[in-house]
Each structure stands twice: as C-alpha cells, then as structure tokens.
Design brief:
mainly alpha; Fic-like fold; Fic family protein; Fido; Fido-like_dom_sf; 250 residues
Length: 250
C-alpha cells in the first residue's frame, strides 16, 4: 500500500493544531506502523494516532451524527490538543469546562461564542443538509465549516470536521482527500476566513466568507497532484547566518 496520499492528508489535518512532523516523517510512520519516525513530541504522536483512529471509526459507521461523534471519541491520546471528554457534546449548563469562546483576533474582546449547549439534533441538521444537497466538493466543505463553527466538542473540532467532510465526500475511501491550502500563506488566510465565518451575523456574510475560503483551496488538479507527488526527505533551509524578521506573529 502506498501511504503517500494519507501522509499528506494527515500532515494537512495536523496543521490545524501545530503538527510539526514533516510529510516524509509521517509517511515513514505509516509505512513502519510506528510513531518513532515522528518528531519526539507527544502532541504530534497524539494527532497522528488519533487521526488514524478517527478515520477508521467513521469509515466503519458512515457519515452520520454518530459517525461524527465517533471521530472525536478517538481523540483520547495524552495531549493538551485533545478533549478532556472525547466524543462528549458540550453542555455548559452542567460542565464549566464546556464554556467555550474562540478568540478571532489578538484583541481579547473580539471573540466568537458558540452555543453553550450542543445536542445530536444540531449535528443532525448538518448531516441532513449535506444529504439533501448535490453532495459536491463545496457541500463537503460546508460540512467542515459548519461543524467547526458549531464547536460541538471540547477540543479537536476542526480535525473532526475535516475527517467528517472527507467521509461525506467519499474521499476516505478513494484516497482523493480534501486537504487545506498547500501554501502556508493561503492556509493562514483560509484560517482568517474561517474566523470571519464564525463571526458572521447574517447569511450574506456567511456566504462571503465561505466563498473566499473556497477560492484559497487547491483545485481538483492541484489537489490530486499534491496527494500523489513523491515524498522526499525534507531539509530546512539554512537560516543560521540570517537575521530573522517575523511578519506572521501569534
């Protein structure tokens, strides 16, 4: 089995949570069925293992509310990037840890507050909307943004959303995975547009943000080329003799 496409998908998925292992390291880990080639980082190991387990879980159940929950239930490795209660739908009325706010700028006053209580009915609406759609790639990305905005789980929501969107579109089976923008700058802008989607107050703003996100994603040809491109060992460029200036800051 050629793990090239899967390695690129896991690496793309991992960028949602600062996954630091390279595509080359990730493919080695898949080929060897061992996390030893990955960075010696518990978060990387957790993201790698739990992504594989989440993929397996929804492939077994299928795209459904229970399938989405099953993905997040697998995010149980020891890591700060994982929910304290995997698969638990947030209910802030009973659990203070479920009171979530998403900062959408460096200003702590600018935050998005998802619903305090999320039920299976909320996920059912997302599933039913996709099932009633043309089931296009755009419809699959709607699954991603809507689960991400709902923030149904304590943590791992965007990773859950991307795996679920891929299952909805059938790409977990045919390995033509939906991936995030390939270029770092496009990916940063994609994240900014997702924040705009979170903060949108009306349908027009939602569609504007979503449209801008779609334009940043690789087209079918570029995506398939990226997924099948041979993976070579990556070497960092030598910056040791340079004065580094950061334009992108936390």
């Amino acid at each position: 089995m050629d793990n090239t496409a899967l390695a690129r998908f896991i690496t793309s998925l991992g960028t949602l949570n600062g996954y630091g292992s390279t595509v080359y390291q990730t493919k080695q880990a898949l080929d060897l069925k061992s996390t030893k080639p990955l960075n010696n980082d518990p978060d990387d190991i957790a993201i790698f293992n739990d992504s594989l387990n989440g993929i397996a879980a929804i492939k077994k159940i299928g795209f459904s509310t229970d399938g989405i929950i099953a993905i997040n239930k697998e995010f149980k490795s020891a890591s700060d990037e994982q929910p304290n209660m995997p698969g638990h739908l947030r209910n802030a009325n009973y659990n203070p840890d479920d009171r979530t706010a998403i900062l959408i700028s460096n200003d702590s006053k600018d935050a998005y507050f998802p619903p305090d209580v999320v039920t299976k009915s909320d996920l059912n609406l997302i599933v039913e909307k996709f099932n009633d759609s043309d089931k296009s790639e755009q419809d699959a990305w709607k699954v991603f943004v809507e689960i991400s905005k709902l923030q149904p789980f304590q943590d791992g929501n965007k990773r859950t959303a991307l795996i679920a969107a891929n299952d909805a579109y059938g790409t977990l089976e045919n390995e033509k995975y939906l991936i995030l923008p390939i270029n770092d700058l496009d990916r940063a802008e994609f994240t900014l547009m997702l924040m705009r989607y979170y903060s949108a107050k009306n349908e027009t703003d939602l569609e504007t943000a979503f449209s801008r996100m779609m334009k940043l994603l690789p087209n079918d040809s570029d995506r398939l080329q990226e997924l099948s491109k041979p993976i070579e060992e990556e070497h960092n460029s030598d910056l040791s003799t340079r004065k580094i200036k950061r334009e992108l800051r936390d």
